[in-house]
Automatic annotation (TrEMBL):
GO CC annotation: cytoplasm; nucleus
Binding site for ATP: 55
Name of the molecule in the record: Protein kinase domain-containing protein
Coiled coil: none
Lineage top rank: taxon: Eukaryota
Protein kinase domain segment(s): 26-284
Organism: Paramecium tetraurelia
Lineage, top ranks: Eukaryota, Sar, Alveolata, Ciliophora, Intramacronucleata
SUPFAM superfamilies per UniProt: Protein kinase-like (PK-like)
InterPro entries, sorted: AGC-kinase_C, Kinase-like_dom_sf, Prot_kinase_dom, Protein_kinase_ATP_BS, Ser/Thr_kinase_AS
Pfam families named among the record's database cross-references: Pkinase
Length: 350
């Protein structure tokens, strides 16, 4: 009887080690980058040697930046989503000090990194980037989700050159009264969000237009030193690309595509009344959407191996530990992280 009990106990321990997730289940291989709450690492899962990206986020920094809702929102949305043109979640777990988000590993670096290296892209490259973004947005919009923070930093290349959308922190399921949802990144934020008005999927199309404008001309149409300066520029003038501004070898259709997307009034913006209008714009008249979706398209831009970001500094370990200690003593705040769990193999979520 004692032997049976011991055998059953060992089985339970083995089962729990399989179910209960921990950083100990992974081997950390390399640092890929730094974010507002922590770092992103390349990791290998010890059980099967699979490679992933892992965001390790400090609970103290999340509390300090009042971003608990944002990180929980990202996990909850990613749990419902899976698509070849977004960065998918594989699991999520936590310990006393950190949250851990395990994601698809993409090795090509983000579009911002490549914009900084190349300054501009060709029309063929930019069209391909736009198509990848459109497919990812189409998937989100069909699920009633607005991304709301589309920008080069949130578009990541896989090793083949396909772009995928990431960071669902301020994405939201659309609701009619959403004027209070004003988060976003100046320079890519649609005027209706800046002006605290109700908004829909057209905000993502505005950001798409800004990104392709940047790929074409090497700069954003609206720039400024502060959020207010950018807002003033957007509200004071409707920028449009003139024929004389088109780079050599770029088509009129490309300029028209951008111009229709960066319309300040959402009702005038391409895709606002019918999202399929974006895909059906003349610029894509000869584009093979089926080959793209099946990933049989030959990407025109190959991202050179991304080596990660350097030169960014953190708080000193001593200061950060002291800060953590103080913030993590707030039991009420820390309890809000309780639902930060996702394990598709065996999940305890209700």
């Amino acid at each position: 009887m004692q032997q049976i009990k011991e055998k059953n106990f060992k089985k339970q321990v083995s089962f729990l080690s399989y179910v209960v997730q921990s950083i100990r289940n992974y081997e950390v291989l390399d640092i890929l980058g730094r974010g507002g709450y922590g770092k992103v690492f390349k990791v290998r899962r010890k059980k099967n040697n699979q490679l992933f990206a892992m965001k390790i986020m400090s609970k103290a920094k999340i509390i300090e930046k009042k971003s608990i809702t944002s990180v929980l929102n990202e996990k909850n949305l990613l749990k419902q989503l899976h698509h070849p043109f977004i960065v998918n979640m594989h699991s999520a777990f936590q310990d006393r000090e950190n949250l851990y988000l395990v994601l698809d590993l993409l090795s090509g670096g983000d579009l911002r990194y490549h914009l900084c290296r190349n300054k501009r892209f060709s029309e063929e490259e930019s069209q391909f980037f736009a198509a990848c973004i459109i497919v990812s947005l189409e998937y989100l919009h069909q699920h009633g989700i607005i991304h709301r923070d589309l920008k080069p930093e949130n578009l990541v290349f896989d090793e083949s050159g396909y772009l995928r959308l990431t960071d669902m922190g301020i994405a939201r399921v659309w609701r009619p009264e959403n004027a209070s949802d004003t988060s976003g990144t100046p320079g890519y934020m649609a005027p209706e969000v800046m002006c605290k008005q109700n908004h829909g999927i057209a905000v993502d199309f505005f950001a798409l237009g800004i990104i392709i404008y940047e790929c074409m001309l090497g700069k954003r149409p609206y720039v400024g030193k502060s959020r207010q300066e950018i807002r003033d520029q957007v509200l004071s003038k409707q920028i449009q690309i003139k024929r004389s501004q088109l780079p050599v070898a770029w088509s009129i259709e490309a300029g028209d595509f951008i111009n229709q997307l960066i319309q300040r009034k959402p009702e005038n913006r391409l895709g606002s009344n019918n999202p399929s209008d974006v895909k059906n714009h003349p610029w894509f008249s000869a584009f093979d959407w089926d080959a793209l979706i099946k990933k049989k398209y030959d990407p025109p831009y190959y991202p050179k191996k991304f080596k990660g970001y350097e030169g960014q500094t953190d708080d000193t370990m001593e200061d950060q530990n002291e800060k953590n200690f103080v913030l993590l003593r707030n039991k009420t705040l820390c309890e809000q992280f309780n639902e930060y769990c996702y394990n598709p193999e065996v999940c305890f979520e209700k």
